[in-house]
Amino acid sequence: MNKAVFLDRDGVINHITKEHDYIKSWGEFRFYKNALAGLRLLARSEFLSVVLTNQRGISRGLMSENDLYNIHENIQKILGNDRIRAFYHCPHGYGDNCDCRKPKPGMFLRAAQDLHIDLTNSFMIDDAQEGIEAGAIAGCRTILVLTGRGKKQVQFVENWIHRPDYILRDLDRAIRFIHSQKTI
Ligand SMILES: [Zn+2]
Questions:
Q1: CA 105 to CA 91: how far, in whole Å?
Q2: Annotated catalytic residue: which of 10, 126, 170, 172?
Q3: Rounded to the nearest whole angstrom, what is the distance from the C-alpha of residue 110 to the centroid of ligand 1?
Q4: Domain residues for 85?
Q5: Which of 7, 118, 164, 182 has the most CB atoms around it within 10 Å of its CB?
Q6: Is 0.85 surpassed by the pTM of this model?
Q7: 168, 127 in Cβ contact below 8 A?
């Protein structure tokens, strides 16, 4: 069985814009400082790197699935040999009642099946409650990062049913922390 580090995208790997907590095109995409270093370290570790991202902009018609694939292809081009193992996205909106939109664990279950991942030996890194909750429900250890929405969200963490196991500054710190754990 494989181990994975699941990653949220917007607010974890890349900046969100002032107006929105998501981006719609490669033109708006900006990596966080040190995010590439973290992703490269992860790609060379024993963990599979798997992005799980809610993209309700697709259901709202703000962007197409092809726009999303274009962003992910460009990320992969920049990462080269250190590419992300897989991307999963939920295109649905709040009212669609799908099984994949975080905090539901559908994307984790799909990835686990496709890539033979042991969820209990895996981590979820997210900047928001829904990702931490989904990760916990899926059986992963969870890390809240303070980029993106994380800085605001961390203030309310005491009220969450599923609190993060760890709170770290950013993606790079989180990946280094996982990397430094000897007995996983
Ligand atoms: Zn969905």
A1: 15
A2: 10
A3: 12
A4: 3-180
A5: 7
A6: yes
A7: no
Choosing from 8, 126, 127, 170, which is the catalytic residue? 8
CA of 87 relative to ligand 1 center, distance in Å: 14
In contact, 13 and 150? CB cutoff 8 Å: no
- Total structural domains in the chain? 1
* Cα–ligand 1 centroid distance for 92 (angstroms): 4
For tokens 């409650």, what's the residue?
129
* Residue whose entry in the numeric block shows the structure tokens 């770290």: 168
The pLDDT tens digits for 70-99 are 999 999 999 999 999 999 999 999 889 999
Is 82 marked active-site?
Answer: no
**Is the predicted pLDDT of residue 11 greater than 50, yes or no?**
yes
Q: What is the CATH number of the domain that holds 43?
A: 3.40.50.1000
Distance, CA of 74 to CA of 131 (rounded, Å): 24
- Separation of 83 CA from ligand 1 center, angstroms? 24
Q: How far is the CA of 104 from the centre of ligand 1 (A)?
A: 9
Q: Does 184 score more than 50 pLDDT?
A: no
